Input
Amino acid sequence: MTNAPVNLTEALASFDEIYSPRVVARMNDYDVRIAHAAGDHVWHVHDSTDEFFLVLDGQFDVALRDSDGVETTVVLHQGDTFVVPKGVEHKPSSPGASILMFEPSGTMTTGDRDDGDLPDHVDSTAGHSL
Output
């Protein structure tokens, strides 16, 4: 990390992989990550942390599953933010989007628990350097 500004448009143009976030900044013990999204992610849970999303462009959907197994989907568009509370099972999906996330450093993209069926296009990572 440097003290130089990061242009998000340029940073997003520097990679093509989907669901493979890049760390663009660190603040206290948090990573600021950007990612391309397309298709389905996996059902997963972050037991100890909330997950913040900001849609930079496109549409990004977050399916949520409550403790009774009832599913609802939140549809987000450019400029929308949403926080998935810790402990809530969720599954992102998108017809195509770029997103920004705030998460504690070291948080895995597939959470602490996932459905075990990891598609090839989903990178289980704590984020990559730009």
